[in-house]
Amino acid sequence: MAEKGKIAIYPGSFDPITNGHLDIINRSSKLFDELIVAVSSDNSKETLFSINQRKNMIEQSVSNINNIKIRSFKGLLVDFAYSENIKTVVRGLRALSDFEYEFRMAIMNRNLNEDIETIFLMTHEKYAHISSSLVKEIYFLGGSIADFVPGPVLKGLEKIKDE
Ligand code: PNS
User: Fold this and answer.
1) Contacts of 130 (CB under 8 A, 6+ apart)
2) Which residues pair with 69 in a beta bridge?
3) Does residue 109 have its Cβ closer than 6 Å to ligand 1?
4) What's the Cα-to-Cα distance from 112 to each of 50, 74, 95, 107, rounded to whole Å?
5) Is 4 in the active site?
6) What backbone phi and psi angles, to 5 degrees, belong to 122?
């Protein structure tokens, strides 16, 4: 099957999206004709936000970038990529500690479908310490996360806290 244009998938849990994810999205959107941000709806992690909440927060945070689509997917990432006829997966790397997990995932995905390549972008150093899980922990313990997440995520977290 011929590949369509230069399209890549940026997959993740995005629970919630952070400024680090946004940096990778911004930079990948300049490298590809189109970027699909693919939100996993059933990986093994329990999520704070529902799939629709996670998608909405991403949508509101990337409204300034026009070659992006936000999709959710169930099941294997490589199957989703194959069904969309996309052969490039983008992942961000923050630190050495990310490497082992990313390495195993990339090799496993290549074993599952050797046509699909994973490429890695180094995070901008100013975002290297940010993760969705730390952001949630800090927020619910009363710390300020305004420098780490986009506005829609702050609103989303406030809504959950008020419920
Ligand atoms: O943001 P995360 O949690 O690091 O993203 C992980 C994600 C969603 C990319 C990964 O868990 C994934 O691809 N899940 C889909 C199911 C799958 O393909 N699992 C096998 C991975 S080798």
Assistant:
1) 18, 19, 20, 94, 148
2) 36
3) yes
4) 28, 16, 26, 9
5) no
6) -70, 135
What the block records as the tokens of 23 is 């940096």
The sheet carrying 68-73 orders its strands as: 68-73, 34-40, 7-12, 88-93, 117-122
Total-model pTM: 0.95
**Tokens at residue 4, please?**
């369509």
* Interval 111-159: pLDDT, tens: 999 999 999 999 999 999 999 999 999 999 999 999 999 999 999 999 9
Centroid of chain to Cα 99: 16
- The closest residue, in CA terms, to atom 14 on ligand 1 is 43
Instruction: Look up residue 106 and give its two tokens.
Output: 């990339």
| 3-state SS assignment for residue 128 | coil
Ligand 1 pocket, residue 119 CB under 6 Å: no
**The token pair that represents 82 in the structure block:** 């194959």
Length in residues, the chain: 163
pLDDT in tens, 5-42: 799 999 999 999 999 999 999 999 999 999 999 999 98
Tell me which residue of 3, 47, 26, 43 sits closest to 123, measured CA to CA.
26
Does residue 60 or residue 96 have the better pLDDT? Answer: 60
